[in-house]
Fold this protein.
Amino acid sequence: MSSKKSAAKPALKFNTKWQYSAAPETADHIQLNDKYDLFINGKFTAPSSGKYFDTINPATEKKIASVAEANQSDVDRAVKAARSAYNNVWSKMPAKERGKYIYRIARIMQERARELSVIESMDGGKAIRESRDVDVPLAAAHFFYYAGWADKLDYAMPGAKPQPLGVAGQIIPWNFPLLMAAWKIAPALACGNTVVLKPAETTPLTAMKLAEIIRDADLPPGVVNIVTGAGTTGAAIVNHPGIDKIAFTGSTDVGKIIQRALAGTEKKYTLELGGKAANIIFEDAAIDQAVEGIINGIFFNQGHVCCAGSRLFVQEGVADVVIRKLKDRMETLIVGDPLDKNTDIGAINSKEQLNKIKALVKIGVNEGGNCYQSSCEIPNKGFFFRPTIFTGVAQSSKIVQEEIFGPVLAIQTFRTVEEAIEKANNTPYGLSGGVWTDKGSKVFKVTSKIKAGVMWANTYNKFDPTSPFGGFKESGMGREGGLHGLGAYLKLN
Ligand code: NAP
Ligand code: MG
């Protein structure tokens, strides 16, 4: 791994030199209630058990609001409302009218973008730069994109006489709360389905804001229902006999439980699950650009990204220089207040997730990996974790095989193109990956041989509503986004 030409220099200590004044985004323009009820049949309604749980700000550990816990009978009410709206209104409405409602949701989201970004960062811990520049604009873009398809389904699927499925149950995780809600709801509505959606327990607030937007857009009652709660609420949706389709994004473990529950039923399903993506840097790559892409791929959004580039394979001749540059760049990353516009890495979403990351890093050290963490200060309160890299790890190391879902990168080296492909494919997952090289032919060779749903070349983590997304192997089944995303919500003859 070492070559004399590129011997490793010690990492630079930038953090004492580059201090930025705090630039916090204000939260005085947002409106939050102390308590959120369930959104069923166009109205906010109390949970039948009377139970509420707290959602906290992971950067301060302070409670933000109480949120209703939906049980089986609440889910039943939501499914009945969705069925009635499907039978009586939504499936009968001319498609171009459906499209107008979806456009309206997109426009209101844009109008309220600032509020949505601040709430997303408060409830989930992600840096405001991410929620402001990525999550919220992309969420609105999904509604705009699918609004355009609503009255063109016959052109999207020529000769297939596309028909809606009925009521879709949708269950989403905490890492992109509003974006995942948009990703699920927009294509379902465009195809003429109605929806019961459950956000994650730790990040329900932007989904509740979306419920307000849907109400303000005058969507007919029952077309979208949002029920909050934990895993049992999700299970009640999965097992409800009145549901025609399940769209799930989350962990592979829960995906397997859902797949078992749905086996032998008539319900259609798509599963978007975990990942352990490989970034591959060849010697002929633009190294600085690649380093920036690797940093972006694993550290921004705290590594809470299913397609995070959590494994890095570097060709031997450039390994030392890449690792040195990575360490230098890590030293400049600012970890802290998610609402500060300077912050690169916000708070880890929950204490549970922080403990999981810490435990896996400890295993990595115990297995003999060389652990390097940036020397930045982190706040005393809240859930934070320093950007971390491991070198000297083996293919069999737990931190190379398991999804960590935190800002932790495992680095290995390779000599040949074939070795890089083999190592990258040596994982139970197959969601995404990245290739960094100057040669177009190498891009095509490598991307066509890596078993992953999404491959980026000389960039990373770029999303667009027109592109399909989804995994192979334990990363799931089915595709969301683009034309493929329509197919998942339609019956085709
Ligand atoms: P998770 O624990 O699987 O939870 C996902 C959702 O399922 C949450 O709303 C959760 O509720 C709910 N749930 C939990 N147990 C359930 C059950 N038995 N039946 C039905 N629903 C149940 O995943 P997570 O920790 O929130 O999210 C992180 C995972 O999501 C990572 O593995 C990541 O890779 C994956 N992910 C994948 C994609 C993709 O597109 N492939 C995108 C984003 C994230 P509670 O949270 O309220 O308990
Ligand atoms: Mg929260």
Observations:
- The chain has 16 helices and 22 strands.
- The pocket of magnesium ion (ligand 2) is lined by residues 55-56, 123, 202-203 (CB under 6 Å).
